[in-house]
Amino acid sequence: MFNLFKKKKEEVKTNSYLPLKVREVVKETADTVTLYFEQPEPFLEYKPGQFLTVILDFEGKEQRRSYSLCTSPFVDPYPGISVKRVDGGLFSNFLNEKIFPGKTINMLPPMGHFTADFHSKNQRHFFLVAGGSGITPIMGILKSVLVNEPKSKVTLLYCSRNEAQIIFKKELEKLESANPERLQVIHNLSQPTDSWTGLRGRLTKDRVQVLVQKAESESDFSKEYFICGPDGIMDTTLEVLDQFGVSKDQIHRESFYSAAAEKAHEAAVSGSLGGLTREVTVELEGEEHLITVSPDKTILESGLAQDLNMPYSCQSGLCTACRGKLITGEVKMDEDAGLSEKEIAAGYILCCVSRPITSDVKVRIE
């Protein structure tokens, strides 16, 4: 009886995956590929700027990584993700080297709040800041603005290491040529060749200030700011926007890596955080489960280790796939960048970076 129930739960878990067949593999740069997928039946519905979670087995263990969609559902016939190789990266190296057309990859459905709604009557200035592979979700948003909002315009400030590292370089040039009055692409290269005539060196606050001041002076356009890239670029841009008093409702940010969560995890594993092992109640699909959470584990890690089918994706506190409602007790989140201030005030937590600090913690997964 027990085995039958377990098998049923595993079948439900497997059937929730979205199998996508690779249609084309495009080499964007020496260390970045874009994987385009055949449209499934029914068509894949997603918003520009959202991400897919890739599910792969390595040595018999299921692992997940999130990759942003670089395509626009309003422009591109096939959805695609771009993957930049990371030194020692299990997923990024595999996806760059081992994937070929015809290969089917299991995914979780599109998720993420780094997106916008569009209307032809809008007159907005989209100020987009990207660093490295942070251009991936920005690309889908950029194309969606141009096709959906003829009265709106786009400024893209894109930071790369050198000319060869500019992802989507040719596509951006074509888009800028086709929309000279509505799209301005500004490249900032940290280590360019001697022939480079554009901005060079690290992105400075002064450079961002000049561009933001110009955008904020345009009374005819409402402004939307989208930022995606390394912490340094994001922090510099956010500091400038704060100086200009830009409303938080106008600022959208996406990060692929959480330094805060990583440091907290390392501290927990080393034991420097201290803390006690506690029992946590997790309400999942209407059923309550009691799990044991040690100081070196998060609520999600402990739940998965005890065979709970809890939702998750990035495991860095950024994507909100593991969001839950804190019913009782208190937790400490290593990172809360994925949640809005309203969500935090309403009691939502991210299980992948949450550790119980009281003995009465109960979380409802909604």
The counted number of beta strands is 19
Low-confidence stretches: 1-15, 258-262
Tell me the number of structural domains: 3
Q: What order do the strands of the largest sheet run in, or round the barrel if closed?
A: 4-3-6-1-2-5
Text of the CATH class of the largest domain: Alpha Beta
**SSE string:** HEEEEEHEEHEHEEHEHEHEEHEEHEEE
* Class inferred from helices and paired strands: alpha/beta
Average pLDDT value?
A: 90
CATH architecture of the largest domain: 3-Layer(aba) Sandwich
Q: Which band does the percent of strand residues land in?
A: 25-35%
Shape summary? globular
CATH superfamily grouping of the largest domain: Nucleotide-binding domain of ferredoxin-NADP reductase (FNR) module
Count every helix, treating DSSP H or I runs of 4 or more residues as helices. Answer: 9
Radius of gyration: 22 Å
Q: How is this structure best described in words?
A:
It is globular, with a radius of gyration of 22 Å. A six-stranded antiparallel β-sheet has the order 4-3-6-1-2-5, covered by helices on one side. The chain folds into three domains: 95 residues, Beta Barrel (Elongation Factor Tu (Ef-tu), domain 3), CATH 2.40.30; 131 residues, Nucleotide-binding domain of ferredoxin-NADP reductase (FNR) module (Rossmann fold); 93 residues, Beta-grasp domain (Ubiquitin-like (UB roll)), CATH 3.10.20. By secondary structure, the protein is an alpha/beta fold. Helices cover 26% and strands 32% of the residues.
